[in-house]
Design goal:
Elements lengths: L25 H24 L24
């Protein structure tokens, strides 16, 4: 994603997604990202450098928001 003035609103260059079953744990998800993430990132950077990828504007209607997180004492 490209940087923008707002939080997480920049144009997307590429995305990687997978289904998460109800039986999965955070450990399973991290392992999957560790397995496939580096190749995905490398491929994306290579394609972007070769101008093989365009940019896709994010749909702000699909965005979710979180209130400011305050430090607990």
């Amino acid at each position: 994603m490209k940087m923008d003035a707002e939080m997480d609103t920049g144009n997307m260059i590429d995305k990687f997604g997978f289904k998460i079953g109800f039986d999965r744990t955070s450990k399973n998800i991290i392992e999957r990202i560790q397995k496939y993430g580096p190749k995905f990132l490398n491929d994306t950077l290579w394609k972007y450098g070769k101008r093989m990828l365009g940019e896709v504007k994010q749909d702000v209607n699909q965005a979710t928001y979180c209130a400011k997180i305050e430090k607990e004492s």
